[in-house]
Amino acid sequence: MKKLLFLLLLVLLPCAALADLEVHFLDAGHGVCTILLCDGEVMLVDGGPASSSDLVFARLRSLGVAEVKFAVATNPDADHVGGLPAAFHAAQVQTLLLPVESHGGERYRVRTDKAAEMGAAARAAGEGETLALGGAEVTVLRQEMTLSLLVRYGAHTFLLCGDEGSQAGRVPPADVLRVSYAGAGSLGEVKGAAGSAYAVVSCAELVKSPDRAYMEWLLRRDVLPLCTDYVGDVVFRSDGIALTFATETYYVANRNSKVFHRMTCSSVGKMKESNKRIVYSCEQAELLEYRGCKNCSP
Length: 298
What we know:
The protein has nine helices and 19 strands. The chain has helices at 53-62, 78-81, 85-90, 106-117, 187-190, 212-219, 228-231, 266-270, 282-287; strands at residues 21-25, 34-38, 41-45, 67-72, 92-98, 121-124, 130-133, 136-143, 146-153, 156-160, 176-179, 198-201, 224-227, 234-238, 243-247, 251-254, 259-262, 276-279, 291-292.
């Protein structure tokens, strides 16, 4: 696990206070997984595919989580529920919230059976249901077999969308939007991000690698896309007034030469601090008219 390199972007205050809400967007491969911690209470939203089980287990343990108040499956597909059983081995899960009580998929039944086996209460989440997570308020939005969660904490909102296109036309504005996949199928959903500051994108590289029009649409509206398969895990922190975020990796652009580099490139160490500019995707760099370094090939 790479050490997190914290880059603070402050929304309202010149310096950040101790955060009361943390939202961890994990690099879960071809799937989504988000962990929320607020005032000592924990919510897990999706578990990624089965291949992410070790990641889910290790992250909950590394965060010192002994109890998960809510584990939520926003969609019955394997890329949402595959890694959820790991949470039951890492911590005591109180309640498992599902998009539907039952589903024909064998993997879905296995996951819900695991909840019963480990003593968690499993039920379908209701439209408009409000959940308390410490000082945060979480509202359930649902459309057919998909859930989305709107998280409010002080001045900030996070919208955790369940799947691509599932909330098209009804996405409320939020400071941070979680998008399952990049691609034309998601664009209706993402257009709800026009008032957002950030869009956390899962698996941009695995779906159309990623769709350039999709990324440019976000960037031209001053929405910063943070792609987990490029920058690794993304962690947002809020004290209700200031909003900050950190990523595992990033790119460094040279304002003078107009070249951008991987953070590990030897050229970065030779660069004047005044010339450095941080960017979070190749699309962002290219839109700003930087070209990729020929040595590190970002």
